[in-house]
Design a protein that fits this description.
alpha+beta
Length: about 475
């Protein structure tokens, strides 16, 4: 299965490479040919949109990266577990936020808890969010976003440094049952984004700026000399409505008796329009240079996209493999993973003439725990038992959640006596463990059945013998280990 997934991944990367390179080369070639026939048409319909596409591709890496980071934070199991468990040891979350900020080079990282309204920052707990504070209106705005919207982006003053303006990505956080538990995210300094815009302008020799959906110029370089809105920009007054109602469009207009070509594109994640302008005079001089520059940048962008795609696919491939082989509640192997490992272990035991044993164990009177405390507490009891089991196993051993409150342990290079001894140690460790939940002290015991593999039997027969031994342990009073002979 792993080889098939890897081969599929390689085929996808190659297909994506060919499609991206072909698209960039064909588009650039057509643009150059058309330019000889009509420079104005070339700029308005081809060159400028292509430049806009290239800049948009870089935005995917530069400006949209904080959205991806915030999404990872919102889905992080540590953040959700820490919040659900009453926000104990705040220094752990502060350290986590600091590591996020350092790792991804953001200017800030934060988490606001719905339960405590504490504003956790990479430098510590700054304050509490207040309903009546204008400065905290953003939090309640994010909390009230429709179910289909998980985040918002806004420009605001840095909570930890009032002298700095930050582009925030505010992402809603839900617990494992889908309940809202807070808002997390990161921020980019506006100054850094302005430097990005200046870099785009220098690289492509175009004017680049952003407008919101109302026509307000939101981000621009330091040397921007235009008006503060599209509606008040000379020559754009009559085009502003068309720009703001089209996801992508190309226009030309007169400003200071010069023809200016404009390409607009809605960046949906930001709900801002990317505006790229080109002066006709400069276009005539830079036509050929632009063509070769587009080809070169296309290769760079293609490589960047492929690199990101490869990293993303690899990450999600590993995540899917873990999900496919691991029990979600306990982190133990599931039956599918166990069967594969079991088959290999039996083959190894036969070839190497080494012993192998299995232990099947069951939590005693677990139904009473569920009936008395509820299934959520029952799940915590199962998790606690699984943690005890893991602490007694080596890296070669395999713990599998066999079903419900029942576990199976596979012990390579272990004979019946050794397996019995280990099972008894586990049984004692579980019996003395005290689980405290909501002021309740819960003590559990386990019953175990142990069987050593016989070369003449099938895997099913081995497990069946261990299962019979387990039932004997139950019948003999529970909280004991029975060895199958």
């Amino acid at each position: 299965m792993g080889n098939k997934v890897w081969n599929d991944k390689k085929r996808f990367i190659w297909m994506l490479s060919i499609l991206l390179l072909a698209a960039f080369i064909v588009t650039s070639g057509i643009s150059y040919q058309v330019a000889h026939e009509s420079l104005s048409e070339q700029i308005e319909d081809n060159t400028l949109p292509l430049t806009s596409d290239n800049i948009y591709s870089e935005i995917q890496q530069d400006l949209l990266r904080p959205i991806f980071i915030s999404s990872l934070m919102a889905q992080d199991t540590f953040v959700r577990d820490w919040t659900i468990n009453d926000e104990q040891e705040p220094e752990k979350l502060v350290r986590y936020l600091k590591e996020i900020q350092q790792k991804y080079n953001t200017v800030t990282s934060f988490f606001v808890s719905e339960a405590s309204r504490n504003y956790y920052h990479s430098t510590g707990v700054l304050r509490k969010i207040e309903d009546v504070s204008i400065d905290d209106a953003w939090y309640f705005r994010v909390r009230s976003l429709p179910t289909s919207e998980d985040y918002e982006i806004n420009i605001d003053t840095d909570t930890a440094n009032k002298n700095r303006t930050v582009i925030y990505v505010n992402y809603k956080v839900y617990d494992f049952d889908g309940n809202f538990i807070g808002v997390t995210g990161v921020g980019l300094a506006v100054e850094s984004v302005k430097k990005m815009i200046e870099l785009y302008q220098t690289r492509y020799n175009r004017k680049v700026y952003f407008s919101d959906r109302q026509g307000n110029i939101t981000l621009r370089s330091e040397g921007f000399d235009g008006a503060s809105t599209l509606q008040s920009t000379q020559g754009l007054e009559k085009l502003a409505t068309r720009i703001l109602t089209s996801p992508s469009a190309s226009f030309s207009y007169l400003r200071d008796n010069r023809t200016i070509y404009l390409n607009s594109r809605l960046v949906e994640e930001f709900q801002w329009y990317l505006m790229v302008e080109q002066d006709e005079v400069l276009a005539e001089k830079k036509l050929l240079t632009t063509f070769w520059l587009n080809i070169g940048l296309s290769l760079v962008v293609t490589f960047g996209i492929l690199l990101i795609a490869n990293m993303t696919l690899g990450k999600y491939q590993r995540k899917l493999e873990v999900m496919a082989s691991t029990d979600k509640l306990t982190g133990a192997a599931n039956r599918q993973a166990f069967e594969e490992y079991f088959t290999r272990s039996i083959s190894h035991a036969v070839v190497e003439s080494t012993p192998m044993a299995v232990v099947i164990l069951d939590i005693d009177h677990f139904k009473q725990v569920n009936d008395k405390y509820g299934h959520n507490i029952g799940d915590l009891v199962i998790q606690s038992a699984a943690n005890v089991l893991k602490s007694h196993l080596s890296s070669a051993d395999l713990l599998c959640r066999w079903g419900g409150e029942e576990f199976l342990i596979l012990l390579p290079n272990t004979n019946a006596s050794q397996a019995h001894e280990l099972a008894d140690k586990i049984r004692e460790a579980v019996a003395v463990r005290n689980i405290k939940v909501n002021g309740n002290d819960i003590n559990i015991t386990i019953s175990c059945g142990v069987a050593e593999y016989r070369k003449t039997e099938t895997p099913e027969e081995l497990i069946n013998r261990a299962d019979i031994a387990l039932y004997q342990a139950k019948e003999q009073g529970r909280n004991q280990v029975v060895l199958s002979y």
